[in-house]
Amino acid sequence: MGIVTFNHISSDVHHIQVETPPDYETAERDYNVQHILGRNGDIVQDTGSYKNVPRSYKVAIGSYEEEYSVMANRISKWLHSGSGYLRLEDSYEPDYYRLAMYMESGSLSNLYGHAGRTTINFNCKPQRFLKSGEVETTFYTLGKILNPSDQVALPIITVVGDGPGVLTIGSYTITMSQITNKVTINCEIEDAYDGTLNQNSYIIVANKLFPKLQLGETDISFSGGITSVRIMPRWWTL
After folding, report:
1. Taking 90 as the threshold, does the pLDDT of residue 43 lie above it?
2. Predicted confidence band at 105 (pLDDT cuts at 50, 70, 90)?
3. 53: which residues sit within 8 A by CB, 6+ positions away?
4. How far is CA 203 from CA 25, 27, 171, 199, 206, in A?
5. Domain segments of the chain: what residues?
6. In angstroms, rounded to a whole number, what is the distance separating the alpha carbons of residues 185 and 165?
7. Does residue 109 have a pLDDT over 80?
8. Where residue 64 falls among pLDDT bands split at 50, 70, 90?
9. In CATH, what class is 132-237?
């Protein structure tokens, strides 16, 4: 029997156990395909991204201490406890997590008033994020960071210091005209902030390309008023 954790709440809390391991769905590459009349073959444009994947769990629910209707209501509240993409983990892939949206399941069978079975369906982003990629690495001087995955990562970078400085990550450079305590740079959403304060006007991203952590080693260096750099790499694979 397995366990699912959705939105940081474990299925154990709701007397739910996964009966069989979920199928692994391979992410589909996202292509733009166009056919030109009179020309052999289609024109295929690789967007460099992947489509969402489904993930389904066949589960059993049961407790002698609670009535079926009470359990069914609590499960519904759990699955609808947030909106948009939420964190999804399970005991079958303990080193990874996904970002998923709950999709309506089928009916929940009623077995003797204290148990039931159903299938819980999620719509997931294609990435399987490594939990090790949530651990920050702090640099007080130049150094290197090693990407252990097979995909290019989009990190969250926190720059600490006072005054202007230059940050170089591999072939990417960010020039900072002002640092007051710290600036966080989210390379996925291409945004710079300090808490709720927007800091985009204080950074210049060379060639408008936010840093990426390529496969293998990436050199990290900084100068000026920067005293340290923290990198949460957000490693992922398919």
Report:
1. no
2. low
3. 25, 26, 27, 28, 124, 126
4. 40, 35, 17, 7, 10
5. 4-24+52-126, 132-237
6. 14
7. no
8. low
9. mainly beta
